[in-house]
Amino acid sequence: MVVIGEHRHTQVKVDLQAIKNNIKAEMDRKDPLTELWAVVKANGYGHGIIQVAQAAKQAGATGFCVAILDEALALRAAGITEPILVLGITEPEYAPLIAEKDISVAVGTQDWLDTATTILAANDVTTPLHVHLALDTGMGRIGFQTPTELAAAVTTLNQTNTPFDFEGIFTHFATADQADDTYFTHQLNNWKTLIAAVDELPRYVHVSNSATSLWHQACNGNVVRFGVALYGLNPSGQELSAPYDLQPALSLTAQLSFVKKLAKGKSISYGATYTAAEDEWIGTVPIGYADGYERRLQGFHVLVDGQVCEIVGRVCMDQMMVRLPHEVPVGTQVTLVGTDGDQTITLQDIADYCGTIHYEIACGLAPRLPRVYVD
Ligand SMILES: *Cc1c(COP(=O)(O)O)cnc(C)c1O
């Protein structure tokens, strides 16, 4: 099979030791009876789902969370045998496959349970399908909103001859990464009201993403769904500081593919939006918005030879230009995320420039950027 990006010096480097260190820091801080499930959706937030899952497991993760069924199947195919929870809604037509592969799914309606019951029976499935009931306490995304609906679903799950294993119950906070905890408290109260409708709680009761565990540790149930922080990224951006050092695992580097002197008055890239103010050394970097390096990054910078170099002219689909302090050879390393000398560029810096969050930049890094692992 041809691996697109294999013959390419523009690379995402992932430090698996940093991932393990972040997980160990969280393992040391949380209640020892609380499990850590590593959230590896969206190709491990761009870092590589399988490699991250294996590193997380080595560091002590005892389960995994993903967004869609295919991500769970990829983990099973790679030999992961721990519990895997699909956090989004999976279409009930896949119920037999979910049961067969021993995967757990989030369920937010009675209708889902009824449809899946019919499909499982029609396919003579006898292995129980693991269900985590999703409660909507204020995220407004998926889940049961009222104690009555929830109690009915629990009754269905607890029936004799049920095709389900009532394995978990959970919610998700919308503002756990903010200093103001008014809305968080409102959601927490809703959670308490809802779970009071469940006579016997299932094995896994969980509410915490990274932010909740970092800043509201007291409400962790017996599982933490540890996501962005395991990659060394602060879920709050700059707003709150983490209780331990987070080590960013990802760096992004390229090599200059072309270097030239551009005469004063000549312009660069689409729209000719940049014109050289004097004779300038210009380098071409073989990365562009098709790689997830956003077009809005014109005017931002990269590092070459430990020096900050401005991105001049529009970022193209596959290439962009930077202004160099002096002539440097073709093949010189360009750091787009990471450290060179005493300068560092973080995913947070890029996100700030783009007016978004580091999550979006990390998981936007395209598959054609090869991932290289160091441990
Ligand atoms: C993505 C996700 C997480 C992980 O969130 P982080 O902020 O990355 O820790 C946890 N729970 C749910 C339901 C999610 O969708």
From TrEMBL:
GO function terms (MF aspect): alanine racemase activity; pyridoxal phosphate binding
GO CC terms: cytosol
InterPro entries: Ala_racemase, Ala_racemase/Decarboxylase_C, Ala_racemase_C, Ala_racemase_N, Ala_racemase_pyridoxalP-BS, PLP-binding_barrel
Annotated ranges, domain Alanine racemase C-terminal: 249-374
Name of this protein: Alanine racemase
Species, as recorded: Lactiplantibacillus xiangfangensis
Annotated Pfam families: Ala_racemase_C, Ala_racemase_N
Similarity annotation: Belongs to the alanine racemase family.
Residues where substrate binds: 141, 317
Keyword list, A-Z: Isomerase, Pyridoxal phosphate
Modified residues (N6-(pyridoxal phosphate)lysine): 41
Pathway the protein acts in: Amino-acid biosynthesis; D-alanine biosynthesis; D-alanine from L-alanine: step 1/1
Catalysis: reaction(s): L-alanine = D-alanine
Entry annotation: catalytic residues: 41 (proton acceptor), 270 (proton acceptor)
EC number: 5.1.1.1
